[in-house]
Please model this.
Amino acid sequence: MFINFWYPAIASAELTDKPVKVRMLGLNFVVFRDSKGKAQCLSNVCTHRGGNLAGGKLHGDCIACPYHGWQFNGAGECVKIPSIGKDGKIPARTRIDAYPVEEKYGLVFAFLGDLPEAERPPIMPIEEYGADGWRSTIQHWVWDIDYKRSIENGIDSAHNEFVHPTHGFSGTRDDYKLNEPEMWTDEWGTGIRNKRLAPPLKDEKMREASGRNVDAVVESSTGHHGIAAVWTHIHPMPNMFIHQYLYECPIDATHTSIYLINMRNFLLEPEHDGRMMERNQVVAFQDRDVLTDVQPKLTPHTQTKEAFVLHDKPIARYRQWLDEWQARGWRIDVETIERNRMTTAYAIPSPARRQHKGWVIDAVPLLSARDAVKAAAE
Ligand code: FES
Ligand SMILES: [Fe+2]
Model:
């Protein structure tokens, strides 16, 4: 798992007037709205004696720890220690890690890392979100898989034919062959564009909307953006667009929280949302069922223990990205954290760690480029 990316913590609609405990990257966070409704995200471990902040109550802009009532604001500063009275001096090292938060596309994103703003990989953009002629839906699943398996599945064009019977021919056409995809990389990821023969859409309403009843060559493109986000643009007809955006977050190394924002430019009336979402869920669960059973559970660190062919090229490239981000010092040393789980509470380092010294909670240990063997255990 990696620090220094934006991760989806919770859906905006689910964050109301109560603090919520959210597990990300194997650690706990508390997410809450301050008095102005702005979402805030802090490490969940109270710097006093380890209280569970998410179990506390909100007081204006602060979360109060349920153990001795210390109050922390959205910047992670302790602003009240009831036991020392209002004139008591609050020690600076009571500070808790606070993470940058952005609310976008119906999601609350937290930047889990210490990079200054200008250096942060951006949230994967949805250009058409909120634009005329588009309709969005949002769905959420939690799966027992390594998030990397899911991202690799997102950029794997050869599985469609077999995992999703409605998308392909399920291996029944002897003349079927996948073209070599056009592949490119940008600053934060790798994309591919594909033209493939596809049967007509199975959903009657969608088929009517597409106006296509015969097999045809369909263009689609897909790619990952950063460590755990995938975009897919499918154009079943030149004027019919389905754009899907998966924002994923490792709950821990083998559990993944997945948000799907689906954008469509047809059947725009809300009454079609339910059917679209049902369709998406059927397809998503087909992926889930395959991914839950792959072995080993954790994505191998190298390609030598899996036999890659032409269409696995984007996956090989994704693994190279992981090495590059590890070389920047962003990969968490999960093995060490596991070993110390009973004795040490950890936090993801926040941007304030670059300004302030003397933190009570240890920052998670990180791997260097040379720790390849350890990374395999993540
Ligand atoms: S442990 Fe949180 S206030 Fe004491
Ligand atoms: Fe799939």
In short: Helices lie at 147-154, 160-163, 204-210, 273-293, 313-327, 334-339, 372-375. Residues 153, 159, 163-164, 287 surround fe (ii) ion (ligand 2) (CB under 6 Å). DSSP finds seven helices and 20 strands in the chain. The mean pLDDT is 93.
